[in-house]
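hey can u check if this looks right to u? its 126 residues, i copy pasted from the old doc so theres a chance i mangled smth
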Amino acid sequence: MNGIYESPKRHAVVCVVDGDPAVRDSLQYLCDSNGHQALGFATQAAFLRTIDDVHPRCVICEAQLPDGGGVELFQTLKQRGLHFPFALLVSRNSMNAVRMAERVGIEYVWPKPLVDRSPLLSFLTG
């Protein structure tokens, strides 16, 4: 195995994890409208419960979730040996979350709200 989580049960999807339904729906719509199947999850627990049935192509996650944080989710995935592109959305004034993301190896950190869509579109096609 090449270190990438693979499941024969589903096609690869973009997983959007955000507690705000409006943000989650907007990101799912943006992904879907650009040809990428997307599934949304309100909490990290909901995402982790379905990880065996979903084949994440990549994850877009809010830094602050109702049941933890995006950095914590990234670390949990790493500990389980699950590696795929991971993007973290942070509020504009959350330098602490940005520093923590850099420390654990999250390559994609974007300010929220996501005004410029080009990093997201690059992330999806990369």
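Residues 1-10 have pLDDT under 50 and may be disordered.
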